[in-house]
Amino acid sequence: MLLTAARVLKEMEAQLYGTVKFIFQPAEEIIQGAQKMHTLPQLADLNSIAGAHVWLDLDVGTFSAEPGPRMACADNIYLTVHGKSSHGAQPHQSVDAILAACAIVEQLQIVASRKVSPLEPVVVSIGTINGGTQSNIIANEVRLSGTVRCFSPQLRSQLPGLLENIALSTAQAHGAVCDFTYEHCTPPTINHEKTTEIARGAIAGLFGPQSLVHMEKLQGARISPGIWSVCRDALSLWGPAIKRRENAIPTTTSALTWTKKRSQAALPRWPSLRWMQGNPEKGVSLCPRVQNSILQQNLTNQKKNF
Questions:
Q1: What integer pLDDT is reported at residue 23 of this predicted model?
Q2: CA dist., res. 259 & res. 252, Å (int)
């Protein structure tokens, strides 16, 4: 979709001004790419970013583009519980790291139920737990990892301390010791009202107002700045049998391209996105490798949908 939008915008380069950068987010599934991209000097001069993501709850040709929080932050937590081994028949001689780890998993949930306002969504999920060597040996070490999601930057800044205090005190209550690490990965996606208005106008102009639908904000994560919208594309985004809906490609590409075009009038000082490998001159620039890749693709039918 982004490659097609790049080709179309390149062909209408004379109608654009400023700089257009096309960004491919790396390492999305391990929720580390967006955080790394925030530090790149090539992105330091951006005023806004427009992006799209497929979503199975929306029909092809419909879009959710709404202001405010849309996707939660995605942070990781890593815990190591240290205890003392003994024979399983002599538990009184041990400090059971598995028992302490299970208690920590349970107690971490009180952040959502007792430490944070019920009006403020937050999710703490433990995804891995590994420990022990034999069925008759009480484990002396357990490693856990999990994910933390919320929409509020203020709450996000408080969560490391809240979770660490719970984990360490619970381990101590069991006679164990806990090492706790909180890793900030992807901040929440909060759509700017003005840029959202531009995107909604572009979508409604292309496909009619009925193409704009409401969808609740999501605990999934995405690169943070700018306007983010979703459209339906797959039967299951995380299942074993993903089936792509190819007819979602031209509609989403059209929405991205026309959002950029409309932004010219709405935000006259808005520089948009340029290939990071491109030259520093103004305009839409494609590095030779990417340009050749685009030209080799049969995108003619998609372009006719604009």
A1: 81
A2: 11
